[in-house]
Amino acid sequence: MRHPLRRTRFEEFRALDDVSFDVPWGEAVGIVGRNGAGKSTLLKLLTRITAPTHGRIELAGRIGSLLEVGTGFHPELTGRENIFLSGSLLGMNRVEIRRQFDSIVEFSGVEKFLDTPVKRYSSGMYVRLAFAVAAHLETEILAIDEVLAVGDAEFQAKSLAKMRDVAKDGRTVLYVSHQMQTVTALCTSALYLERGRLSYYGPVDGALERYRASFSAFAAEQTDASRRAGTGELRARSVRLAEESFEPAEDKILEIDIDANTAMIGQYFVSVHVNDENGVVVVQCDSRNVGVWLDPATPQSLTLAIRDLWLKPGRYTVDVFVCKTGVLDSWEGAAVFEVLPVSPYPVLAGDEALASGLVLSDYSYQARPAGGAAG
């Protein structure tokens, strides 16, 4: 107002641009893409949390959302009261909530503590009850954003089964996730978003192939430090692996060189993530866990030795994060290595014996006749 003739400068950013698709009734559609591709924004538009700047959205039926588990929960209210409160905020009327009440309680497994304020719940109990309410929404379309990653392994499997049942009932499911195995298990088709644009829509395998292929191009971009996320106060100069390939039971050795910044005050730490070919973080190696904090005044050379991690054969990527109170440098795809198709076990039992699980493990069985000595 003081300078009405001075033009304000701004940069326009389109989280989504020229995205158009049709979803048939009863389809379970996975929405995949790298961080910042626009997946969560798309769900917010579809669920009317955010209005589109251009274009229109046509929905044939009510849409329910599981965008954030625990929406509408009040810590002072009991589990019973929160079922009604959260259900009403998620779009259910009182009759629907009463009809689904017993199913919600049974699914959550917190019936013994139903009249206890949720502020006294463990985090697992809180999550189970919140998901149970949202999962029993009686809508024609259900939008889900990463919520199946919560809870323990047993509850995740139970949640996935519930979502699969929803899809089988003929309701439409839109599912955003970085966990490719759940997209494969739940979805009948998938769309791949790349920098706000729809790059692919079709069978799940095709979308996952596009997603995996994006890793190489993204890793090449990240070698330029100026294009990486983070404040830039410190940058990793190089990341090197001792070998380009390892056997499953071998130690994985990684070397990291970090520049100095004499103007920076306070120590920093490093966190390394190892991801499988689907982008799922298999292990996080955070220097804080082993008491290693680093001085920014001098250049640092770190050697990370990952021991007793039996990775399954395949391709793995390494992300390196340099952090203080926030992220100073985020180098995704800093290194790539292969785990060779070699079994670390003494007996070859076939592929079926190695098919499940994210990693292999060093284990043993001891068999003995009932009531007899070990043998």
Automatic annotation (TrEMBL):
A Pfam family the protein falls into? ABC_tran
Name used for this protein in its record: ABC transporter domain-containing protein
Could you list this entry's UniProt keywords, alphabetically sorted.
ATP-binding, Nucleotide-binding, Transport
Q: Which domain of life is it from?
A: Bacteria
Q: Where is the ABC transporter domain?
A: 1-220
PROSITE patterns reported in the protein's UniProt record: ABC_TRANSPORTER_2 (PS50893)
Q: Which family does it belong to?
A: Belongs to the ABC transporter superfamily.
Record bears the keyword Phosphoprotein: no
The parts of the chain that form a coiled coil are: none
The species this protein belongs to is: Luteimicrobium album
